[in-house]
Amino acid sequence: MILMSSQRWICSRTAVYNLNYHIIWCSKYRRRVLKNQIRQRLIILLQEKAKEINVKIESMEIMEDYVHLFVTADPTSCPHWIIQQFKGYTSRKLRKEFKELTTRLPTLWTRSYYIESVGHISDDTIKKYIEDQKGR
Length: 136
Prior knowledge:
Layout: E1 2-3, E2 10-11, E3 16-17, E4 19-26, H1 36-52, E5 56-62, E6 66-73, H2 79-97, H3 100-104, E7 114-118, H4 123-132
Antiparallel strand pairs: 1-2, 2-3, 4-6, 4-7, 5-6
Helix pairs in contact: 1-2
């Protein structure tokens, strides 16, 4: 993967692309469990999985009951698959490491999610929106 000089496009052997997604998902029942050590571990796990599946996390904010991500992916990675990878991996690892998650929730994440494709013009807006979530 090569980033072109404009920083807007990425080149692979077969494609030039700029695919960004704003992704949001919630904890089951919107329980406020994503704090302290769980939050810190979740950040690490998301970064590990992103590296493994060749997705770049441009911006991330973990609230107590939901996750905001702004990611860049290649055209061979289906958005649903990306979310499935993030949610499945983090749920498995966190529920194994933090037993309080297994006693309070039948599953860590809801089955649903929000995703929006983001064009070049509005990516700064999405990043600012995610960063502004801290103050809420």
